[in-house]
Amino acid sequence: MSVRPNLLGALLAILNLALIIFVGAFLYLLFGDNLVETYRNQPVPMDQATYRSAGGRNSVDAEEEIVNGIHVQSGLIYAEGFDIVRGNCTACHSAKLVTQNRATREGWTDMIRWMQAKQGLWDLGKNESVILDYLATNYAPEDIGRRANINVEEIEWYLLDLEE
Question: Which has the closest alpha carbon to 88: 63, 123, 139, 138?
């Protein structure tokens, strides 16, 4: 009787091995080419020093690029107070929220107070005056708008003669 349990155990081991081989072959047929390509011809990662010495463009430099007075990555005007504004304002929202708005110093103060009361903005401390100076200087209301109204009474009218 001891022969049968050993035979049964060996049979179960063979069936388990066959099942593992079958599942492995099935997965290879489904995903094999993708798996092989994933691990083939991968570029060797370079550290920052190697990248710079190889003449590559440093991604940190690209993030800090300034073109025509605009910080390229954020879109903010690069002026005094820029770093403090970027650090505080973009911690919660996109810089686009700043660049699309225009306000006086009082208007920016009101927006900051609203964010502190309703949105959980922290106390800006001594940075608040730097932030307000930057915003009031670079994102003040623009004095452009609609053209002036036309004074109809000053127009010199004439009649167009269409009969000829």
Answer: 123
Q: Are 118 and 109 in contact (CB under 8 A)?
A: no
CA within 13 Å, CB half, 135: 28
Indicate the SS3 state at residue 66. Answer: strand
Yes or no: say if 115 and 98 are a contact pair by the CB < 8 Å rule.
Answer: no
Q: Is the dihedral of CA 110, 114, 117, 121 positive or negative?
A: negative
What gap in Å lies between CA 123 and CA 110, rounded to an integer? Answer: 14
- Per-residue pLDDT in tens (0 to 9) along the chain, 164 residues: 455 768 888 889 999 999 999 998 888 888 777 666 665 555 545 555 444 444 455 555 667 899 999 999 999 999 999 999 999 999 999 999 999 999 999 999 999 999 999 999 999 999 999 999 999 999 999 876 677 788 888 888 888 888 76
Q: Per the confidence metrics, is the pTM higher than 0.85? A: no
Nearest to 74 by CA among 138, 145, 143: 138
Length of the chain: 164
